[in-house]
Structures are given as structure tokens and as C-alpha cells.
Amino acid sequence: MNYVDAKPYAYPLPENLNQLALVIIDMQRDFMEPGGFGDALGNDVLRLQAIVPTLKDLLSTFRQLQLPVVHTLECHAPDLSDCPPSKQERGKGSLKIGDEGPMGRILVKGEPGNGIIPELEPIAGEIVIYKPGKGAFYNTPLSELLQEKGITHLLLTGVTTEVCVQTTMREANDRGYECLMVEDCTESYFPEFKQATLEMVTAQGGIVGWTAPAAAIKAALV
Ligand code: C5J
Question: Which tens digits make up the pLDDT trace of 53-100?
Fold first, then answer.
């Protein structure tokens, strides 16, 4: 068996690497660029850019090895029928979900600002999940798609660490997946929240899972 050098102890890779998926959460213009949802909520969105080169490199390793990749997008239907008022009204930003912004309607599926950033654009054969919530399992076909492909191990990346990435990791952990959060491929608007998340998932002997840097994963894979 092959292991990733990880916290709180070595992460065992599956014998068949096709059971390991790279999950890239919400690397969308809405969270990463001025004029989107993250900006409307008053965040410094440009600080999320720091992870793009490392994540792009890990994605290219997965593509070279032809291993499974999952991309998620947080978005709502144009009529907002899948956006509860509790979510739309929250935040008190300058622009709310569904409002017209500089990149199109905020957090609405198909709008320019809702797309994945060009550096990480999905390619044919990769799973793309449109999700209305924070977690990628809520109200999506993700469980069924992972089961169909026999995937048992997930590497969690993307933004933001303590919101959609951590929620998805917790959902996956409850469903029996062996989860590892990639430390330098996830980012938050709040550095202290990222740090706290990394610590809380690995506390108590890995209560939610493991964390490791991308280099440790690449070292175990190639
Ligand atoms: C947020 C996300 N922060 N993708 N979404 O609302 O983390």
C-alpha cells in the first residue's frame, strides 16, 4: 500500500488509484474575482488567487495519470427556486443572489461570473456538479456518480476552506469516504479560519480526515 505523508498520520491511498478523486470546490469567478458574490459580501477576493498555480499543477497530475476529477459550482436556477430566502437575504451585501452585477446575475447558473476560472476549466470526462448549497452532496447527484465509478477516496480542494470545502468534507466523511484536504490548494477570505479548519479536521486522531500539501500527494502518486 502507498501512503501520503499527511496529518495526523499517513493517508493510505487505495490500491486502485481510480478510486481516488480530486474534488475541486467552487473555483468560480463569483468567489475569486471583483464584481462577484464574494466581493458583494465585502471580502478581499484576490487573496484566493494564491492557490491557483498549485491547484492547476495538481489537476494536471490527475489528468496525466487519467484519474477521476470532480468540479463543483455553487449556483442557483435563474428563477431562484432552489435558493431559500434565508440564503438570499443573508449577508446584506451591495448585491444579493440573483441581482445583476458586473459579471451578470450573482450566483446564477450560466452567468459569466458563475463560471469556473479559465485556468481550471473542466475538460471532457470530468464530473461537473452544480450545487445550490454549501455541501456538494446536498441536492446533487454526486453520491450516485461516485458510487457508479467506485470512488472511495477524496482529495478536497477549492474555496472557501471553512464554508463549502469543509461542509463537503464533513458530508463525505459521514458517507464513508476517506477524505484529505489539500492544505495549499484551498483558501479562505479569513486566514485564521483556514488554519482553524485544517486543525479541526485533523484533531482527535483525524475526526473528519487528513490534511497534506500538494507536494506530498504528488510524491505518493508519481
Ligand atoms: C461561500 C463557498 N463562501 N464556495 N461559498 O459562500 O465557500
Answer: 999 999 999 999 999 999 999 999 999 999 999 999 887 778 999 999
Which cell numbers hold the place of 93? 451585501
Cα 184 versus chain centre, distance: 13
Instruction: For residue 215, count CB atoms less than 10 angstroms from its CB and return exposed for 0-12, middle for 13-18, buried for 19 or more.
Output: middle
Measured from the CA of 28, which atom of ligand 1 is nearest? Answer: 4
Kindly name the residue from 7, 39, 83, 164 that is annotated as catalytic. 164
Length of the chain: 222
Decide if 131 is catalytic: yes
- At 195, phi and psi to the nearest 5? -60, -45
DSSP bridge pairs for 158: 25, 186
Question: In which residue are the cell numbers 444579493 written?
Answer: 96
Amino acid at 176: G
Give pLDDT tens digits for 142-162: 999 999 999 999 999 999 999
How many alpha carbons fall within 13 Å on the CB side of residue 20? Answer: 24
How far, in Å, from the CA of 163 to the mean position of ligand 1?
5
- CB under 8 Å to 12, separation ≥6 — which residues? 1, 2, 3, 178
